Amino acid sequence: MNVRSRPRVAVFKMASCDGCQLQILDAEDALLELAGAIEIVNFAEASSDLRPGPYDITLVEGSVSTPEQEAQIREIREASRILITIGACATAGGIQALRNATGRLEEFVRTVYPTPEYVRTLEDSHPVADHVPVDLELTGCPIDRGELLHALASLLAGAKPRVSTSPVCLECKRRGAVCVVVAKGEPCLGPVTRTGCGAICPRFGRGCYGCFGPAQAPGNAEALGRRFIELGLRPKEAADRFRFITGWAPAFREAAARLEEVER
């Protein structure tokens, strides 16, 4: 294949920890093989050779949290034929979205930064899809590199990538993991969380934290929250289980809000 005919791929970062980009770099041999089929033209984590668009495929990590990022994501969308968001921050706001709807942004900034007057940030931190159209979302904290490589390979073959919507519970059954809810009475988000991590936490006897976000819609998050209350959690404690890495995802956010109403 002629080098000029290879799809141009770019990777950008918003507000995030870079963990999903590191997953790409850690793919090693698979990435080298993939690199022969694409041309990575903008990836600051990997190279200082940053070329402008247009791009055939763009991967974006991180939530939109500053005015500069709000403008940048629109520019990226305009320059990209296919836009893929990767990770919990880009798809569900991530940890940054914990501040949303609290009305305490100024307090948080003063607490975290020694010179808060230098900080310019949006009141809320939102997933990329709240600002521009997104063609594909790959969730996780971090993303599953196998799922990412599969998505890219599918696009290169002209096929639509398939993303699992099965809950973590199915993965537990496949791997022979004992259900922590049944065996230990441990609150676990596995029944309403999309698989992709290999059920790491339940396999080590801990409840799922929901890192890959809600499974198939509409889900049953509120009912699971009521089960947490039966296991001994207060309604606010049950709601807090949903307000974590993917807590701004609609299904989890709405379930948490209704559980908090019970507390009042």
Structure characterization notes:
There is one protein chain. Helix content is 38%, strand content 11%. Helix 10 (221-230) packs across helix 11 (235-242), helix 10 crosses helix 12 (250-263) and helix 11 (235-242) packs antiparallel against helix 12. The chain is globular, with a radius of gyration of 20 Å. It contains twelve helices and five strands. The longest helix is centred in the C-terminal third of the chain and has 14 residues, at 250-263. With 264 residues, it is α/β, with parallel strands linked by helices. A five-stranded parallel sheet has the order 2-1-3-4-5. The protein has two domains: 3-156, NADH:ubiquinone oxidoreductase-like, 20kDa subunit (Rossmann fold); 168-263, no CATH class. The mean pLDDT is 91.
CATH level-1 class of the largest domain? Alpha Beta
H and E string: EHHEEHEHHEHHHHHHH
Name of the CATH architecture of the largest domain: 3-Layer(aba) Sandwich
Radius of gyration: 20 Å
Distance between the termini: 64 Å
Largest sheet, if any?
Answer: 5 strands, parallel
What is the number of independent domains?
2
Structural class from helices and strands? alpha/beta
Roughly what percent helix? 25-40%
**Largest sheet: spatial strand order:** 2-1-3-4-5
Please count the helical segments. Answer: 12
Gross morphology is: globular
Give a count of the beta strands, DSSP E runs of length 2 or more: 5
In percent, how much strand structure appears in the residues? 5-15%
Q: What's the overall average pLDDT, rounded?
A: 91
